[in-house]
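Page 47, continued from p. 46.
Same chain as before, 418 aa.
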Amino acid sequence: MLNAIEISPKVWWVGGLDWSERHFHGYTTERGITYNAYLIMDETITLIDTAKSTFTDEFVQRISQVVDPAKIELVVTNHVEMDHSGSLPAIHRLAPNARIVASAPAGVNEIRAHYGIEAEGVKTGDSICIGERTLHFVQTPMVHWPDNMVTWCPEDGILFSNDAFGQHFATTKRFDDENDLCEVYKQAKKYYANIVWPYGAQVQKAMAALAGLDIRLIAPSHGVIWRSHIPEILEKYQAWSTYQTEEKAVVVFDSMWHSTEMMAREICDAFIKEGVTAQLIDVKHTHISDIMLYLCDARYVACGSPTLNFQHDAAHGELPHLSARPLAEERPAHRHRVRQLRLGAARPQAGVRRDGEHEVQHGVPGHRPAVDPQRGAAVRAAGHGGQDRRGRPGVRRVERIHDRERGRPQHAVGPFAM
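Result:
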């Protein structure tokens, strides 16, 4: 078993390593998961978070390598989700007099609801002196749960960042500079794209609250600890949370008899000819969580689905991942910076539908472009009869639409079906 690791003088990593877990929150974790917890040996012995309940034994053994768990006097619960707090009842039994603090009111309420344990609430600006150190708390709601908060220890320059800056990556090496940095960045991006991406505004607020701190270590709840590449991961979070994109395209499709695949390949080739890096993805062979890794910072997104999906996927389970549905039955529920167009469709229909987090507007031939009244985006249907002028299936051009709110043109491509 991996021993407890001292990450800073008198601060120890005592978490758990899950080498075998391959699914978490609906996405693949091909490199396993780390449940990080940290023990601070000060006048008030303090535990930052716990571990998933199935790792309670090894978690307690690592604490015992440093101190008798019964001597823990303060437990900080940055997040009550089960992979963070599952071993809290065991710690409560071993150290029944330990003070437990969590974000108020959400964290306190969740601990009571899940475990029947009473905790004290803390809010942004609150702090607790534990001896030579003072712990400061900053609430970061919806990064990615309502109860989330981070803990700042200025004396050591350690930000116990909870889910922020984490990665699902099981490794015996606890620091960024001890691991393959490309893999660490990949897993950090995949984690952000699948867990945190919808909450960019909340991430921005959290980063603003932490601005100016002299951070020497970022100790997240999952993955490696950042010590040598802190500016780089902060820069990446700044880009991801403001939805900055790169000049690249992602063409995602599902196909029954290869017609939609032919269109997808045509679109992908068109991007390449224009000098745009393109990624062609068949959803039958790529998990959606891996697709999100590519979508996270792509400037162009095209999605293709057989129109037969609507008739068959619910009843027969055929091609359920990327189905085309009637457009007028649903209303847009969420605006997203990437808007989509139906390109090359044989018979475009009027209406609006919600496609995951994307708002989709469709125009009917002979009608004026559909306009999003909230964003002022003129959306034009392109193509005719499902073929270009040379009789080839697919799309001959990418339409430009203007984002009046942000004052700059943006590009969008969208659902194609055949």
